[in-house]
Structure formats: structure tokens, C-alpha cells
TrEMBL record:
Highest taxon listed in the record's lineage: Bacteria
Record protein name field: Monooxygenase
InterPro entries on file: CrtA-like
Source organism of the structure: Phytohabitans rumicis
CDD domains documented for this protein: CrtA-like
Length: 225
């Protein structure tokens, strides 16, 4: 059973973008091979406004890791040290899984528990778009993104993505679980998108997970919080 999930986020200068892209290519296997890691993904990020190609933020990158043991982190790994050399700022969000539905790369990486959350919660959505459905999906996103930006209780949001384009998702952090549930299941725009998803068949694979935020270490401005 996983006992800890970490989300590391780095900001780099524009002149360091080529080095960051090289790290994205080279560090995927290194991240998965880090001692104690059960599941890991190296991610690009975006503003979370459209989730199309123009949404990418080439100066911010992230690593999501599920650890088999507590008190783990990337700082003392080759991946963590490599990103530290090129980053101008870094933040780590420490998470406890609460609920998860769906698969990521064919596996269920997060456990589901009945434990309540006290304080902020993080929601992660991730999907692999069907190529022929991508344009329709991107056209449907702007109203939902606008609704999220103005939702009560939202602390921060940004997009996440893997290569190739179409393997993407969102990170949102909420003041508490009630605010997340209120938006996810009662806001008209978001509820309409949920109901539309099965009919449209946008996703070849999808996952939704919810976490309690245990700690935020480093520069919160990296995640817009």
C-alpha cells in the first residue's frame, strides 16, 4: 500500500528550457528507478486554460511519485539533484491518497481510503485523449476552465501533460473537500461535462484522484498558491 505521494514542481529560466527538455527525456527511467518509488511520472505543465498545445508552460515542470515508504523525496536522487541544478525555484506538495478511480498507463497507482480530509485537498485528473476526439475536447474546455478559475475555495490550478500531446490532466487545490465536491458535482458547466463524457468518448484512458495535502515545502509561488 502506498503511504506517501509527492508532487515536485520546478521553475526554470527560459534560457534553461533546452536543458529542461533534455531532462524530461533522460529522467523518466531514472525517476521510476529511484529507491522506494512505486509509481512515477515526469510531467510538463500548462496554465490550465485550454489544455491544447498553446497552453504549455515551458518554464515549469513536475514529478509525481508514489512512495512505498514514508519520509521519502527526490532531493537525494539523481533526478532531484539534476533539476536542482537548473531550477530557479522548487516546491513539493506532500499528499495522502483519499480516493482514486481509473487507470494511468494501465495501472491503478493510488489507493482509496475512507479517511476524511482536514484542510486543503488536491484533485488530480488525467486522461489519454482519443486522437480523433482531441479537437472536440479542446473546444469544450474553455467554459469549464473559466468556471474553475472563479470557483469558491479554489487555491490554485494548473495543467499537467505527458508526451505526446493528448496525454494530459489537471491539478487543482481546494480549501477543503466540501468546496471540491461542490464544484465537481454541482457546478452546471462541470456537471454537464461529466454527463457529456460517456457520449463523446473523449478518453481512451482516464483517472481521477483526490488527496489530503499534508505539507507544502519550498516556494509556493511555483504552483501559484
Amino acid at each position: 500500500m502506498s503511504v506517501l505521494v509527492t508532487l515536485d514542481v520546478w521553475r526554470v529560466r527560459r534560457r534553461a528550457v533546452p536543458r529542461a527538455l533534455a531532462r524530461m527525456a533522460l529522467d523518466r527511467r531514472r525517476l521510476r528507478a529511484a529507491p522506494g518509488v512505486r509509481f512515477a511520472k515526469l510531467l510538463g505543465t500548462g496554465t490550465g486554460t485550454s489544455f491544447g498545445p498553446a497552453d504549455a508552460d515551458l518554464t515549469r515542470y513536475a514529478a509525481l511519485a508514489v512512495w512505498a515508504e514514508p519520509n521519502k523525496g527526490l532531493d537525494d536522487t539523481p533526478v532531484g539533484r539534476g533539476w536542482a541544478r537548473i531550477a530557479t525555484a522548487h516546491a513539493r506538495i506532500v499528499l495522502r491518497p483519499l480516493a482514486s478511480r481509473g487507470r494511468w498507463a494501465g495501472v491503478e497507482p493510488f489507493e482509496s481510503t475512507a479517511d476524511p480530509a482536514e484542510g486543503p485537498v488536491l484533485a488530480l485528473t488525467r486522461a489519454r485523449l482519443r486522437p480523433r476526439k482531441a479537437v472536440t475536447f479542446w473546444r469544450a474546455i474553455p467554459p469549464i476552465a473559466t468556471a474553475v478559475a472563479g470557483a469558491p475555495g479554489l487555491l490554485t490550478r494548473f495543467g499537467i501533460g505527458e508526451a505526446p500531446i493528448g496525454w494530459q490532466g489537471t491539478i487543482t487545490v481546494w480549501r477543503n473537500d466540501a468546496d471540491l465536491v461542490e464544484f465537481a458535482y454541482r457546478h452546471p458547466e462541470h456537471r454537464a461535462a461529466i454527463l457529456r463524457t460517456p457520449a463523446e468518448g473523449w478518453y481512451a484512458e482516464e483517472l481521477f484522484a483526490r488527496f489530503a495535502v499534508l505539507d507544502v515545502v519550498g516556494d509556493r509561488r511555483v504552483v501559484g498558491w
